[in-house]
Amino acid sequence: MSELINDTLILTGRHMRHIARVPEKLFGVTLGPVVMVLVFGYLFGSAMTVPGGGGYREYIMAGIFTQVMLSAVGTSAAGVAADLNNGLVDRFRSLPMSRYAVLLGRTVSDLAMTALSCVVMAAVGMAIGWRAHEGIGRALLGFVLLLLLGFGMCWLGALIGLVVRSPEVVNQLAMFIVMPFAFLSNAFVPPDGLPKWLQVISEWNPVSSVVSACRELWGNPTTRVSGAFPAEHPVLVSLVALTALLAVVIPLTARAYQRAAAR
């Protein structure tokens, strides 16, 4: 276990140092979310009304945070596919190190970048009027849920990268997979305007549960179309769904890595 932790820390540091050599990556993960906050807050905010009252800028922040967590799947997928194709994985196989540290180093470093995006977005969100009203503890619990979602997306991205192996394809494929979950949710638009069958899909969508949980924990405006269990207990449903995601995707990714490294 100590070897795994030590190797993971070394590889995480390696990936983070690579950002200093390619600072464009840092701009990509920080400026993109800032643009989303400003576009949704100012351009769409004036045209949207939140059912039940409340400002749209406070309503939309949980959705933007969640969208950024989902986008981590593309970052990890492209990184893992590139490592496979440039021979980095072969170099790691020749070294006396834990194989699982390769995946952990990649996913932990990608999660660190995603967490940095959260910090920047929170600062910009506060500048345009967003606040967490329920105390520091519940605010932090909301961010813990977001980071759990981001960690799950990093592992899902690693799995896609290992299976597809083409850096030109994995990013588009990853977005194709997560986009329906993002837009068939309550992240950006209150679901009460959707057809009934889409409302049901939206309320049982795990992304909606994470968004609603963050809004509830932060004291931000929220909407509940019906009395569905996920809408009434979003924090519990989010924890169960994210735990199940990690329990499934991590073993699958580890198995895919063993197959990819053996080729």
TrEMBL record:
<keyword id="KW-0046">Antibiotic resistance</keyword>
<dbReference type="InterPro" id="IPR013525">
    <property type="entry name" value="ABC2_TM"/>
</dbReference>
<dbReference type="Pfam" id="PF01061">
    <property type="entry name" value="ABC2_membrane"/>
</dbReference>
<feature type="transmembrane region" description="Helical">
    <location>
        <begin position="103"/>
        <end position="128"/>
    </location>
</feature>
<dbReference type="InterPro" id="IPR047817">
    <property type="entry name" value="ABC2_TM_bact-type"/>
</dbReference>
<feature type="transmembrane region" description="Helical">
    <location>
        <begin position="140"/>
        <end position="162"/>
    </location>
</feature>
<feature type="transmembrane region" description="Helical">
    <location>
        <begin position="235"/>
        <end position="254"/>
    </location>
</feature>
<feature type="transmembrane region" description="Helical">
    <location>
        <begin position="169"/>
        <end position="189"/>
    </location>
</feature>
<dbReference type="InterPro" id="IPR051784">
    <property type="entry name" value="Nod_factor_ABC_transporter"/>
</dbReference>
<comment type="similarity">
    <text>Belongs to the ABC-2 integral membrane protein family.</text>
</comment>
<feature type="transmembrane region" description="Helical">
    <location>
        <begin position="59"/>
        <end position="82"/>
    </location>
</feature>
<keyword id="KW-0472">Membrane</keyword>
<keyword id="KW-1003">Cell membrane</keyword>
<dbReference type="InterPro" id="IPR000412">
    <property type="entry name" value="ABC_2_transport"/>
</dbReference>
<keyword id="KW-0813">Transport</keyword>
<protein>
    <recommendedName>
        <fullName>Transport permease protein</fullName>
    </recommendedName>
</protein>
<feature type="transmembrane region" description="Helical">
    <location>
        <begin position="26"/>
        <end position="47"/>
    </location>
</feature>
<keyword id="KW-1133">Transmembrane helix</keyword>
<feature type="domain" description="ABC transmembrane type-2">
    <location>
        <begin position="24"/>
        <end position="260"/>
    </location>
</feature>
<keyword id="KW-0812">Transmembrane</keyword>
